[in-house]
Design brief:
Two copies of one chain form a homodimer.
Chain A lengths: L10 H6 L19 E2 L10 H18 L1 E3 L2 H10 L2 E3 L4 E3 L2 H8 L5 E4 L8 E4 L2 E6 L5 E4 L3 E4 L2 H13 L5 E2 L11 H15 L3 E2 L5 H16 L1 H6 L4 E6 L4 E2 L1 H12 L3 E10 L7 H22 L5 E4 L1 E5 L6 E2 L3 H17 L3 E4 L10 H16 L4 E6 L1 E2 L4 E3 H19 L5 H4 L1 H7 L9 H4 L17 H6 L5 H14 L8 H20 L1
Parallel strand pairs in A: 2-13, 7-19, 8-21, 10-11, 12-14, 14-15, 14-16, 15-18, 18-19
Antiparallel strand pairs in A: 1-7, 2-4, 3-4, 5-6, 8-9, 16-17, 20-21
Chain lengths: 516, 516
Amino acid sequence: MSEPPAGDRSAGDRRSRRRPRGEAATPLADKPFRHTRNPFAPIEPLSAEQLHQIDDASLRILEEIGIDFLDDEALDLWAAAGAEVDRATQHVRIDRALLRELVGRAPGSFVLRARNPARSLTLGGDAINFATVGGAPFYSDLEKGRRPGTLADFRQMVKLAQQCGPIHLVEGLLLEPQDVPVPVRHLEKALAQFTLSDKALTAAAHGRAVAADYVAMAAIVYGEAALAEGPVFASIVNANSPLRFDERMLGGLIGYARLGQATVITPFILAGAMSPVTLAAAIAQQNAEALAGIALTQLVRPGAPVVYGGFTTNIDMQTGSPAFGTPEGALALLCGGQLARHYGVPFRGSGGLNNAKSVDAQASYETQLSLWPAVMAHANLILHSAGWLEAGLVCSLEKFIIDVEGLAVMQRLLDGIVIDEETLALPFIAEVGPGGHHLGTAHTLARYRSEFYMPIVSDRQNYDKWREDGSHDAARRAHTVAGQLLAAYEPPPLDPAVAEALADFVARRKRELVKE
Amino acid sequence: MSEPPAGDRSAGDRRSRRRPRGEAATPLADKPFRHTRNPFAPIEPLSAEQLHQIDDASLRILEEIGIDFLDDEALDLWAAAGAEVDRATQHVRIDRALLRELVGRAPGSFVLRARNPARSLTLGGDAINFATVGGAPFYSDLEKGRRPGTLADFRQMVKLAQQCGPIHLVEGLLLEPQDVPVPVRHLEKALAQFTLSDKALTAAAHGRAVAADYVAMAAIVYGEAALAEGPVFASIVNANSPLRFDERMLGGLIGYARLGQATVITPFILAGAMSPVTLAAAIAQQNAEALAGIALTQLVRPGAPVVYGGFTTNIDMQTGSPAFGTPEGALALLCGGQLARHYGVPFRGSGGLNNAKSVDAQASYETQLSLWPAVMAHANLILHSAGWLEAGLVCSLEKFIIDVEGLAVMQRLLDGIVIDEETLALPFIAEVGPGGHHLGTAHTLARYRSEFYMPIVSDRQNYDKWREDGSHDAARRAHTVAGQLLAAYEPPPLDPAVAEALADFVARRKRELVKE
């Protein structure tokens, strides 16, 4: 499999790229899909000594305290590798030499194949990939309000994700279609993902059976042989913190890793509840859990693609609620990236977190407080980058569009600056001279349509014009943009035979699962 | 004069600091004034080669194209130093050797004295200082709406700035009290600043007479002798881009620099209008203008404290409006910091820029898109950090409070992480074990009130509780917080003789200026 293009810093090339279908004549027409990389040095909050302290504390946790793996096959693997396994309590203590050796087997970078090969992604190095929100039980928009998510909502959000260039991946758990019975929900979600989008995907890691269904559908789309070449899914495997991986997640981890599919080992830690209240302890525990999960993937299949996931934040001590978009979470993100680089594995962060109940100023500043550190941490996969509202309970249509603006802006920022004789433009600075203006120079006229970032939602009119237009806030304008995008949606091309085979598979599995 | 404390990374010390008067029993009670430093490496978008290209282009601009200084004294100074001065056109060409020698005289760091010595600020190194918005002609709040600013509004905002710990400086031009005649406006503003706040100040650089009034009032407050020891004002001197310093700003520059007061030389460049459309050219021109202004301060008084100001953004090519909180502006900020470090002078950025017309999601995400790069650029002075709305036309009460939340969060982030045996808490991780929770451990109970950042405006309740409480968005909640703060305001102590002398001075100067 060939490496996808490693990002593109040339503004000229960027603009001339051909627009994919469905992205014409929308407010996102000038923001096609493109690979993104972070050219800046990462922000690293830990000194070398602090990194050593965290590393050592994590290894002591795994050696001295140990961790539960609630799955017999996982326990077999650990026992065979020489770890200290207690079958009765399903508890494992892992020696640091063994752990380091296993983590060392994980690749530093890999390619996640998308249905559209031009949209395949590198996970590793300086590559940055933005994924949609995942796992929201509720859906909300300004028209319909807040309500339990439906399959129609799920399909609509996949369509939007397909149309928004800055979105690199569609999260398999995007929102919960609560009108579909739980046992067959993953089939409807996978069908929507595969037919409505050609972007890279994450899949649900909800046990071996779900993993098998996802992989079977991928085999229909890609062919068995192609599937063996490398991963088409990156599936989130959460630790059940503190210090436990449960049966369902381990089924997913083992099921995907065995087939060479990528997993994203992500302790979800709310400091003060699932770990001690101090950030040092929360990060050490995150590190212990992530390393243990990563090591297990390498026991299942040496060299299996795997990502170090960091999702540590804190509970709010006044309400007891999980708090998102916090300075503690930002620090944990930055430390997580630094640790993942230390171990030589790709890093996953989160980019759109917040506790806001409406698409207001709070929704935005908390979101930026996870997006910025995720990018500055050089996270290779940034989940929840668009659509997350209300502590992740809600997938918001308007928040999704506003977040896409934030991602597009970040992409432009990461393009950096082109400096050459032409862009330095000294002859034009001389021509205009002191006190003049550059509005009408040949240099400006040749570039004014394309030089600057063009906003999607941001209003730059003057006050009177804004009032005339209805005094709409950003959420209202985002609602309009979403409508324009959905009206222009066209599905990406798919071989009708493949579409039919997918539909047949889903129909058959639904019958089987309902019988079970 | 002693150096103020260089920031404080110990969470314990931070919390135990005694609260100043007026900050008790408000939502900001746990966020007292404190010095802030950035412990992370700066983000530097320019390669060594690119930095050289910008530097060289800037020096060519000053050597080959030249720059206007519309002030005879400035022209005298340049002529005496050996620059090529055209008296008729007030145009100056500056040789790179001369320019470099002059810029090299500027101090790399200095202390800006505040009325309260504990609130004096370091400008330079890793120190970060947040200032209020400056220069807004309009004031807005949810109750009174948007209207021309008044002296009462000005005084109210100084009171708020005094009460908000994360605000380090009060901008002398905060908002324009349009109910006060222009010739005496600076007197009323300075009186409000000196009597209602004890924080460090910027002053207006609107000619020699205004500078003289500010310094005369400072002499009343500090005494003549103390004033001679170091700066008590950092005054913004804008270039009239492209390539011109006008008479009023030069009067301020010379007036302040001569007396050892600090100036902040800030080209305000909208790329596409006041410079070529390309960012490389805009930054090279900014650099030329900033260096020329800095060099002049050193001609006036070798070693005069001076700050390199970067305020480059772009015009919106659809509306022709200035665009704020843009990715181009963010890149310019990062480059500006890198350039200032290269020349060894402190750097000033802007932290709250946006084009939003209401305190909505746009107001926040654009603000974060100037705050983050300003901090990551290691700007030592971050103007417009609180209250800026609508392209700077409006000082918004609610935006001010929301921005203070953003600054407090940034302060917490910059504190980094304390890692030691106690915070790693391994015995408690062992005690709770797999699958348990840490809510009731002795470790948590000892820390839960103080370990995590406590929000000012952010709502972390659940949806139902939020609805019960009135479904208030962040702006509405900020309005409530502002009211609580203002109700609790107490003026900082001031010798009654000083207060009387200030009032007398203002009364006398008003009579004189009205006669003129």
